Amino acid sequence: MTAHPLVAANLSFGYTKSDLIIEDWSEQFNAGEMVALAGASGRGKSTLLYLLGLMLGPLSGEIMVFGRNVTRLSDASRAGLRARNYGFVFQDAVLDSSRTVLDNVVETALYSGLKRDLAVARAHDLLRQFGVETRSDHKPGQISGGQAQRIALCRGLMGNPPLLLADEPTGNLDAESSRAVIDALRQRALEGGTVVVATHDPRVMDSCDRVIGL
Question: pTM score > 0.85 for this model?
Answer without folding.
Answer: yes
